[in-house]
Amino acid sequence: MIKSLALGLTASMLMVAAPSAQTPPVKTPPSKAPSAAAPTPAPPAAPMGPPRAFPGYTQPEVGAAACRVVSQTQVMCTIPSMVAGRYMARASGTSTAQGEGAAQALVITVGGRACGRVDRRPTKENPWTTGPKTLVGDCEFVVVTDRPLQVIATYGDAKATKDARGPTLKIDRLPWDGVMSANMTAPEQPQ
Question: Partner of 189 at 20 to 30 A CA spacing, among 15, 91, 150, 179?
Fold first, then answer.
C-alpha cells in the first residue's frame, strides 16, 4: 500500500508540476533577455518538512528519547506516526581487538528494509590486532508512514570485545529536496 501511495503521489506531483497544454509559453522580449555574463541566482534552500502533497504529516526531530540500546549488539530508534520526510541515521559500534583476525560489521535497517552494511576486515597491509576501533555507517532515507517506524542498527564483531555500552544510533532530519527516489547501477561496461 505504501508503494502504491508513493507511486501515486509521485505521479500526482509530476502532473501538478507539468504545465497545462492550455497554458501558453512565456516569451521574454528580446530587450529583456538575460545576458550570457549574468550570474545565475542560487536556488532557494530546501525547506524542512514534507511538501504540501502530504497534508497532516510532519517531519519531527527524532531525539535521544526515541532511542534505546536493546543489547550489546543492537540499538533501536522509533520514528513516530504521521511522518513524511528525509532523515539520516548514523550508527556506530566499538570493539577492542583480541588478536589477529579481528573484524567488525554494522547493518542499518529502516522498517523491514536493509539500508546497507559496513565492514572492517583488516588485511596484511592494514592489520588490526590490538586496541579499540569504532565502525561508523550512515543511512539516508525518505519515509512516509502512518504508523511508528523502527530504525535498527545491528553490530557484530569477531576476535574482538564489544564495548559494554553497545552500539550507537542517531537520527537527524534533512531538508526536503523533492526527490522521492534515485538509484544508480553499473551496467556491463564495454571493454
Answer: 179
Give the separation between CA 176 and CA 86, rounded to whole angstroms.
6
Closest CA to 168 of 132, 138, 191: 138
Q: Report which of 1, 46, 35 is spatially closest to residue 177, judged by C-alpha positions.
A: 46
pTM for the whole structure: 0.71
Mean pLDDT of 14-24: 35
Q: Which residues touch 14 (CB under 8 Å, ≥6 apart)? A: none
With CA atoms as reference, report the closest residue to 93 among 112, 57, 69, 113: 69
User: Contact 163/94 with Cβ under 8 angstroms?
Assistant: yes
Summarised one tens digit per residue, pLDDT across range 52-81 is 778 899 999 999 999 999 999 999 999 999
Cα gap 23→17, rounded to integer Å? 13
Give the span between the Cα atoms of 148 and 65, in whole angstroms: 14
**pLDDT interval class at 38 (50, 70, 90):** low
Backbone angles phi, psi at 20, to 5 degrees: -70, 150
The whole-angstrom separation of Cα 185 and Cα 191 is 17
pLDDT per residue over 111-136, tens digit each? 989 999 999 998 888 899 999 999 99
